[in-house]
Automatic annotation (TrEMBL), chain A:
It catalyses: ATP + H2O = ADP + phosphate + H(+). This is RNA helicase. The lineage of its organism: Eukaryota, Fungi, Dikarya, Ascomycota, Pezizomycotina. Its EC number is 3.6.4.13. It comes from Aspergillus mulundensis. PANTHER family: ATP-DEPENDENT RNA HELICASE (PTHR18934), ATP-DEPENDENT RNA HELICASE DHX15 HOMOLOG (PTHR18934:SF109).
Automatic annotation (TrEMBL), chain B:
This is Protein PXR1. Residues 1-11, 215-225 have a biased composition (Basic residues). Keywords: Nucleus, Ribosome biogenesis, rRNA processing. Residues 1-24, 167-291 are annotated as: Disordered. GO terms for molecular function: nucleic acid binding. Residues 197-214, 226-238 have a biased composition (Basic and acidic residues).
Length: 767, 314
C-alpha cells in the first residue's frame, strides 16, 4: 500500500519555493532557514503585548492602511514582544520592502477588508508566502479576538522553514508569536498568533472542531498544487464561511487556473501580483525523438559545448533513470574536458528518496574554471518533477524537458494505485520552462515537437483527488461531519466509481455500517494517519496477540523499501536479504530484518551494520520514528500492546492471521494450471509474484501489499495465508455464495467445510 | 508486429476492466450514492455548481493512461510502424470512402495523395534522402538575417548527427483544431503563412472557418492585454516563424506533401520521411560520430593541418 500520509517527506508532491532575493546564497533562501537556525532567531521572549502604549493601540481592526502598518513596522519597539527591534530586523525589513507584493499592500488590504474570500495570485518570487500572512496579521490583529491566523503549506519542510523565516522577519522567537504545526510536531504556544501548518494538519484539526473556531483568517497557500487536503479544505471552508461570517479566507495560487478558483469561490475578488521573472525562449525539436533519455543527454552535452555559461536543469522520471543519465553525462563531460578543453561539468541528482543532505548538494555553486581565464564550469541537475515547483535552484538558465513524469494513477475497477510514467500537462511544461528564467533570460529545450505539445499534452495536471484511492478521504469527510458525499462541493469531483469503491472498502472493513454511517471502529481508524486497511489491521491486532509485531510491520510498510539492491552487487544483496528471509512471506521478512536491526549487536554501529546487510539505514530509522508516533496514538486509544512469546509455534501464524484482518481485500489465489500465475479475488486479474519475493513455496493463497502495473502485472510484498483464516476473519467478504462458480469458489467451499468440521470437533470435545 | 519484434507474452485476464464490478448496481457504494440522490451517468459535486463547466472528463470516469515501458519520446511512434502497413489497405480505405458517400473526384484526390506518399517513401528508402536546412530567401537580406536569428543558436553547431531543438513549425500544425486559447494565435498565423505561399497543393480549406478563427484570434489578443509583458516577444517570434515556415514549405515539398494527407494522425506523418531516411544508431555511436565529424571540421579549419592533408609544403 502506498504511503498516503498527507505530509509525507518524500517530496514527491510538487511545491513551489519562493525566494526573497535573487542571490545564490542559500542563507537567503527562506526554505532553508531551518538549516541556519542559530543565525536567524535572536532568542527574545517576553510577555504578550497588551500594553496600551503598544503600536497596536492606534490600529483599528480591519480598518488599517498600508501606511499605518508601515509605521508599526518602523516603530522602535516590537509590538509583539515590547522589546526594541534588533538590527537584524531592520536589515530584513529593507529587503521585505523590495518584494513585489509590498507595492500592492494597500490594494491587498482593501480587498481583504471588503470581502470574506479573496483569491490572491502571485508568481514565484513575489514574496507571497512570507509577506501576506504578515500583512494580514497587522490588519486582522487576531490576538485581540483571542484567535489566530493560519497559513497552510502542502509540505512539512516548507511549513517549518517558512515559519522560521517569518519569525525572524517579525523579530520574535519561533514557537511563540509565530509557530508551526506539522504531523507529530507542534511548535506553538498560547501566544501564537500566526501559525504555519501543513494542509493535512488543518484538516485534522477540522475533524475535532468543525467550525475552525480558533482561527480568524485562514490562508491556503500553494492552492494551485491541488493536494488532496487542500481540495477537501476548500470544499469544507466553502461551507464554514456560510456559518461563520467573521472568518476570512485567502486562497493563494500561482497564476495557473486562477479563474477556476474565482468561479469556484462564488466570484471572489482576485488580486494578482507579478513575480520577478525573465523571458525564456522555447525550442522544440523538428521531429519526435526516438529515445528521450538519450536525446536529453545529447542536449545537455550540446548546451555545455555551445551555449554561454549558466546551469542546466534536466527533468527525468525516476531514480534509476536519473542516476543512469547522470553517470553518462558526467562521463561524456569529462571526456569533453580532456579532448576539447570544455569547462568542467558537475552533475547532481535530485529525487524524493534521496537523503536530505544529498538533496542539499544541488545548492552548491557551479565548479570554477580549471585555470584562470579558462572556460567557466557548469552544473547540471538531473531531477524528477520535484524541481518543477518544490525547489528553486538559482542560476538555472537552461531547462531540458523531455515531457514525461511519474504520476500517480488509481483505477477503481481493479483497485490499483500506481506510479506510472506519463506525459506531463501543458501547465507543467510551462512551469518547467519558467524555471529557466529565475535569475536571467533563459532557454528551454523541449524534446518534442510543437505539434506534440499542442496535441499530446493535456491542459492541466489532474489534481490528486482524481488520481487516488479515496478510502481515507471518505473516512476523513465522514469524520468532518459531511454525510452527503454526493453533493459535497469539490472543485473537481472524483469519478463516481472511485467514490463507490472507497465506500465499499470502508464497509467491508466495518468502518461504515450498512447505512453508510461511521462506526466506532471507523472513528478510531480515522485517528491514525494511515490507510484505513492498515489502521484496521493495527486496531484489531491485539485480538491476535501480536500488536507489537503488527505495529512494526505497519511502520515498515509505510516507509520506502528497506532492502537496498545496488546494480553492481545484486547477488551479494540477495544473499544478505536471505539471511532475514522467512519462508512464509515478505512481511515476516521485513519484521525479521527490523528485529535484527534493533538487536544490540546492530545498534552498536547501525550505519556499518546496515551497509553490511544491504539495508537502508534511513528507511529503518524513519520506520522507527513512524512506529513511535503510531505507538503514541495506540496508547492514547488504549489499545493493548502484546506479543506472543517467540518460542510459541503460533508466533508467526498469529501475525499472518492479523495481516489478514487488514489485507483480506488484497488476496490472490494460485491458478490450477499456469506456473506461478495468480488471480486476484473478486476482481479476477491475472498477476505474477514479483521477482523480489522470498516466498519459498508455491502458496495456494497469498495476500499482497501492492499491485504493480507494468506490462506484466505483479503483486509485491506477499505473505502466504490460508482460506480458513480469511473466511473466519472476514466472513462477509468471503461469503461463499457471493462468488461465481469456479476454482476460487470450490476452494473456499472446501475451506469452509474444514472450518465447520473443526468447529464441530471442538464443540464435541468441550461437551 | 514483424517476426523480429521482441516477444512480449502476457496473458490477458478474463475481464481486464472488471466490467463485472462496474456494471453491477447492487454494490454497497452504488446503494449509498443512489440514496443520496446520485443517478448513474451524472457527476458528483454540488448541485448547479458555478464552476461545473470546468469539470474535466476525469470527473466522469477514472484517468486512463498507457503503461509506458520504453524510452520512446513524446509524440514518437515506434520505428517499425509505418512500414508495417498491410498490403491493400489503401484500396480498402478507398472502398470505405465510397461507402461513406464520397464523390469519385474526392477519392481520386485522396488516392493521388496516398500514391505520392508511397512514391516519396520509395525514393527515401532507395536513395538516402538529402535533407536541407532553410537558408532564407534570396535578395531579401533583412529577412534572411531575422531568420538566422530565429534559429536556435545551437543549430550553428549542427551538421553533426546530433539533432537538437530547432525552431521549425510543421505545416501539419495548421490542420489541427482545439488547442485552447493559449495557442490559437500560433495556429492562425501559420494558416496565414501557408496561404501566402500558395505554391503547393493543399486541399482547399473552408474559408469561413479561417475567418472565424482570425476573429477569435483578435478577440483573444484583446483579452490577453494583461499578459502584455510576454506578448511582444511572442509576436516577434511568430513573425520569424512564419517566415521560417515559408522557407520550409518551398524547400521541402516532399515533407509538406506527406503531411497533407489528412486521414492519418499527423504524428505518424511527421515521422514518415525521417523514419525512412535515418536508420537507428545506438546512442554511443551518435556521439562518437559527432565527435569524429567535429574533429574533421576542425582539421579543415586549421591551415596547418589542411596543408598536411593536401601534402603542401609551406
Amino acid at each position: 500500500m502506498v504511503d498516503r500520509r498527507t505530509d509525507s517527506e518524500d517530496g514527491s508532491r510538487a511545491k513551489r519555493q519562493k525566494m526573497d532575493k535573487s542571490g545564490t546564497d542559500p542563507r537567503d533562501n527562506p526554505y532553508l532557514a531551518h538549516m541556519y537556525a542559530d543565525t536567524s532567531s535572536n532568542g527574545n521572549s517576553s510577555s504578550q503585548a497588551d500594553n496600551k502604549n503598544s503600536a497596536f493601540a492606534k490600529l483599528q481592526r480591519h480598518k488599517t492602511t498600508a501606511a499605518q502598518a508601515q509605521k508599526v513596522e518602523d516603530h522602535e519597539i516590537n509590538p509583539f514582544t515590547q522589546r526594541p527591534f534588533s538590527n537584524k530586523y531592520l536589515s530584513i525589513l529593507k529587503t521585505r520592502r523590495d518584494l513585489p507584493v509590498h507595492a500592492q499592500r494597500d490594494e491587498f488590504l482593501q480587498l481583504y477588508q471588503q470581502s470574506q474570500i479573496l483569491v490572491f495570485v502571485g508568481e514565484t518570487g513575489s514574496g507571497k508566502t512570507t509577506q501576506i500572512p504578515q500583512f494580514v496579521l497587522l490588519d486582522d490583529l487576531p490576538h485581540t479576538e483571542r484567535k489566530m491566523v493560519a497559513c497552510t503549506q502542502p509540505r512539512r519542510v516548507a511549513a517549518m522553514s517558512v515559519a522560521q523565516r517569518v519569525a525572524a522577519e517579525l523579530d520574535v522567537t519561533l514557537g511563540e508569536e509565530v509557530g508551526y504545526s506539522i504531523r507529530f510536531e507542534d511548535m506553538t504556544s498560547s501566544k501564537t498568533v500566526l501559525k504555519y501548518m501543513t494542509d493535512g494538519m488543518l484538516l485534522r484539526e477540522a475533524m475535532n472542531d468543525h467550525e475552525l473556531s480558533r482561527y480568524s483568517t485562514i490562508i491556503l497557500d500553494e492552492a494551485h498544487e491541488r493536494t488532496m487536503s487542500t481540495d477537501v479544505l476548500m470544499g469544507l471552508l466553502k461551507e464554514v464561511v456560510l456559518r461563520r461570517p467573521d472568518l476570512k479566507i485567502i486562497i493563494m495560487s500561482a497564476t495557473l487556473d486562477a479563474q477556476k478558483f474565482q468561479r469556484y469561490f462564488n466570484d471572489a475578488p482576485l488580486l494578482a501580483v507579478p513575480g520577478r521573472t525573465h523571458p525564456v525562449e522555447i525550442f522544440y525539436t523538428p521531429e519526435p525523438e526516438q529515445d528521450y533519455v538519450e536525446a536529453a543527454i545529447r542536449t545537455v552535452l550540446q548546451i555545455h559545448a555551445t551555449e554561454d555559461d549558466g546551469d542546466i536543469l534536466l527533468f527525468l522520471t525516476g531514480e534509476e533513470e536519473i542516476e543512469d543519465a547522470a553517470r553518462k553525462i558526467s562521463l561524456e563531460g569529462d571526456e569533453m574536458v580532456r579532448e576539447a578543453d570544455a569547462g568542467p561539468l558537475k552533475v547532481y541528482t535530485l529525487y524524493g528518496s534521496l537523503p536530505p543532505h544529498m538533496q542539499q548538494k544541488i545548492f552548491e555553486p557551479a565548479p570554477a574554471a580549471r585555470r584562470p581565464g579558462g572556460r567557466p564550469g557548469r552544473k547540471v541537475i538531473v531531477s524528477t518533477n520535484i524541481a518543477e515547483t518544490s525547489l528553486t535552484i538559482d542560476g538555472i538558465v537552461y531547462v531540458v524537458d523531455p515531457g514525461f513524469s511519474k504520476q500517480k494513477i488509481y483505477n477503481p475497477r481493479i483497485r490499483v494505485e500506481s506510479l506510472l510514467v506519463s506525459p506531463i500537462s501543458k501547465a507543467s511544461a510551462q512551469q518547467r520552462a519558467g524555471r529557466a528564467g529565475r535569475t536571467r533570460p533563459g532557454k528551454c529545450f523541449r524534446l518534442y515537437t510543437e505539434g506534440a505539445f499542442k496535441k499530446e499534452l493535456i491542459d492541466q495536471t489532474y489534481p490528486e483527488i482524481l488520481r487516488s484511492n479515496l478510502s481515507s478521504t471518505v473516512l476523513e469527510l465522514k469524520k468532518l461531519g459531511i454525510d452527503d458525499l454526493v453533493h459535497f462541493d469539490l472543485m473537481d469531483p472524483p469519478a463516481p466509481e472511485t467514490l463507490m469503491r472507497a465506500l465499499e472498502e470502508l464497509n467491508y472493513l466495518a468502518c461504515l455500517d450498512d447505512d453508510g454511517n461511521l462506526t466506532p471502529l471507523g472513528r478510531l481508524a480515522s485517528e491514525f494517519p494511515l490507510d484505513p486497511a492498515l489502521a484496521v489491521m493495527l486496531i484489531s491486532s491485539p485480538e491476535f496477540y501480536c500488536s507489537n509485531e503488527i505495529l512494526s510491520i505497519t511502520a515498515l510498510l509505510s516507509v520506502p523499501q528497506i532492502f537496498v539492491r545496488p546494480a553492481s552487487q545484486r547477488k551479494r544483496a540477495d544473499e544478505m536479504k536471505n539471511l532475514f528471509a522467512h519462508p512464509d512471506g515478505d512481511q515476516l521478512t521485513l519484521l525479521n530484518a527490523y528485529h535484527a536491526f534493533k538487536s544490540p549487536e546492530a545498534q552498536e554501529n547501525p550505519k556499518q551494520w546496515c551497509h553490511d546487510h544491504f539495508l537502508s539505514l534511513r528507511a529503518l530509522q524513519s520506520a522507527d520514528n513512524v512506529r513511535m508516533q503510531l505507538l503514541r496514538i495506540m496508547e492514547r486509544s488504549e489499545l493493548e500492546m502484546i506479543s506472543t512469546p517467540f518460542e510459541d509455534k503460533k508466533y508467526y501464524e498469529n501475525i499472518r492471521r492479523a495481516l489478514c484482518a487488514g489485507f483480506f481485500m488484497q488476496v490472490a489465489k494460485k491458478e490450477n494450471q499456469g506456473k506461478s500465475m495468480y488471480t486476484t479475488i473478486k476482481d479476477h486479474q491475472n498477476v505474477l509474484l514479483h521477482p523480489s519475493t522470498v516466498l519459498a513455496h508455491d502458496a495456494e493463497w497469498v495476500l499482497y501489499n501492492e499491485f504493480v502495473l507494468t506490462t506484466k502485472n505483479y503483486i509485491r510484498t506477499v505473505t502466504a495465508v490460508k482460506p480458513e483464516w480469511l473466511i473466519d476473519i472476514a466472513p462477509t467478504y468471503y461469503d461463499v455464495s457471493s462468488f461465481p462458480k469456479g476454482d476460487i469458489r470450490s476452494s473456499l467451499q472446501r475451506a469452509a467445510e474444514r472450518l465447520a468440521r473443526k468447529e464441530k470437533m471442538r464443540a464435541d470435545k468441550r461437551r | 508486429m514483424g517476426l523480429a519484434a521482441p516477444r512480449k507474452r502476457t496473458k490477458i485476464s478474463h475481464d481486464p476492466n472488471n466490467t463485472n464490478w462496474s456494471r453491477s448496481t447492487s454494490g454497497f457504494g452504488h446503494k449509498i450514492l443512489s440514496s443520496q440522490g446520485w443517478t448513474p451517468g451524472s457527476f458528483l459535486g454540488a448541485r448547479n455548481a458555478a464552476h461545473a463547466d470546468m469539470f474535466t472528463a476525469a470527473s466522469a470516469s477514472h484517468i486512463r493512461v498507457f503503461v509506458k515501458d520504453d524510452t520512446l519520446g513524446l509524440g514518437a511512434r515506434s520505428k517499425r510502424e509505418p512500414l508495417d502497413e498491410p498490403t491493400g489497405l489503401d484500396a480498402f480505405k478507398g472502398l470505405l470512402g465510397r461507402l461513406n458517400g464520397k464523390s469519385d473526384a474526392e477519392l481520386q484526390v485522396e488516392q493521388r495523395k496516398r500514391d505520392d506518399v508511397k512514391l516519396a517513401r520509395y525514393a527515401a528508402t532507395k536513395w538516402q534522402a538529402v535533407r536541407f536546412i532553410s537558408g532564407g530567401l534570396l535578395a531579401q537580406e533583412k529577412e534572411v538575417t531575422t531568420f538566422e536569428k530565429a534559429r536556435n543558436p545551437l543549430a550553428d553547431a549542427k551538421e553533426t548527427p546530433c539533432r537538437i531543438p530547432e525552431v521549425k513549425m510543421k505545416a501539419a500544425n495548421a490542420t489541427d483544431n482545439d488547442y485552447g486559447e493559449e495557442v490559437s494565435d500560433d495556429k492562425t498565423e501559420s494558416i496565414d503563412a501557408s496561404e501566402d505561399s500558395g505554391s503547393h497543393n493543399r486541399r482547399e480549406k473552408d474559408k469561413t472557418d479561417k475567418d472565424s478563427k482570425k476573429k477569435k484570434d483578435r478577440k483573444d489578443k484583446k483579452g490577453k492585454k494583461d499578459k502584455k509583458d510576454s506578448k511582444d516577444r511572442k509576436d516577434n517570434k511568430e513573425k520569424k516563424r512564419k517566415r521560417a515556415e515559408q522557407q520550409e514549405d518551398s524547400d521541402n515539398p516532399l515533407q509538406t506533401r506527406t503531411m497533407e494527407n489528412g486521414t492519418h494522425s499527423s504524428n505518424e506523418q511527421d515521422q514518415l520521411p525521417s523514419d525512412t531516411v535515418k536508420e537507428r544508431r545506438p546512442p554511443g555511436r551518435h556521439m562518437i560520430r559527432g565527435r569524429y565529424i567535429a574533429q574533421k571540421r576542425k582539421a579543415v579549419m586549421d591551415e596547418k593541418s589542411l596543408n598536411e592533408i593536401f601534402m603542401v609544403k609551406s
